[in-house]
Amino acid sequence: MAGPTTEKSPFGVMLTAMVTPFHADGSLDLDGAQLLATHLVDQLKHDGLVINGTTGESATKTDEEDLAVLRAVLEAVGDRATIIAGVGTNDTAHSVEAARAAAHAGAHGVMAVTPYYNRPPQEGLVRHFHAIADATDLPMITYDIPKRTGTAIELETFLRIAEHPRIVANKDAKGDLEAAQWGMATTDLAWYCGDDVLNLPLLSVGAAGMISVVGHLVGDRLKEMAQALWAGRSQEAVDINASLLPVYTGCFRTQGVILTKAALEMQGLPAGPVRLPLVDATDEQRAMLRADLALGGVRGFTA
């Protein structure tokens, strides 16, 4: 697997769930995807990228488009970053096939979100995740985000999921610090923060790293924050986190993909429009975002 990894952080410390750049007509911008991936890895010090996740607008892309983006990013940075393919859907058979296709394309790992809309029982979650993990030889991340899926992964379920040798990590966007601590204390899963405003709190109680959205803009500072914390420079980590609060808030005043793409466009980086049912940021939202990012010290933005 490419990218700096450790036993504690099997996919690296700093990963971003990358947007999918589109052309103005809504078609894939594969050159833009390669340019953006290169920027994140080489300029913002990312250890890895998650491709075709929620922030990658996987819900409105075809399987063929997902594979095209994955292959493009692997070609651009796969020799020096860990590339994880989002393969989760609310159809287990579809997810299994997506995992196999990602493995064939050369992905270094897969990530599967809890099935959405169906609201399966916990037994269904165990069988779903195990089926995906059985489909390839790749290491796998589960993704727990009940505010989007309608179903949370319960602790007892995590204990059963973690019995699978290829399920090695969880992306936690549950927003429940107590549940996260129990998960880290009772399983051997590497815990990745998937809720940017909780990056430092989760890192401080044992998280392995971050799978971020604001990493598109401040990945280098997030990585410095983690390194400072683990080196015993806790006040430095607290200060970095405080400086990032306007960025956390600013990128999520509306749906995160919308504002992330707007911010990237302001920086002159590939992004393009979002696909319906999302809608592009309004002028008012862009003005507020610009002010938020300036307050948060993001390069290229001034008050």
Write a compact overview of the structure shown.
This protein has 303 residues and is an alpha/beta fold.
Provide a descriptive summary of the structure in words:
The chain has helices spanning 30-43, 63-77, 92-105, 122-135, 146-149, 155-161, 177-186, 199-204, 215-230, 234-250, 256-266, 283-295; strands spanning 14-17, 48-51, 82-86, 109-113, 140-144, 167-172, 190-193, 209-212. It is α/β, with parallel strands linked by helices and 303 residues long. Helix 4 runs parallel beside helix 6 (155-161) and helix 11 crosses helix 12 (283-295). The model has no long low-confidence stretch (mean pLDDT 97).
Compile the SSE list and pairings.
Blueprint: E1 14-17, H1 30-43, E2 48-51, H2 63-77, E3 82-86, H3 92-105, E4 109-113, H4 122-135, E5 140-144, H5 146-149, H6 155-161, E6 167-172, H7 177-186, E7 190-193, H8 199-204, E8 209-212, H9 215-230, H10 234-250, H11 256-266, H12 283-295
Parallel strand pairs: 1-2, 1-8, 2-3, 3-4, 4-5, 5-6, 6-7, 7-8
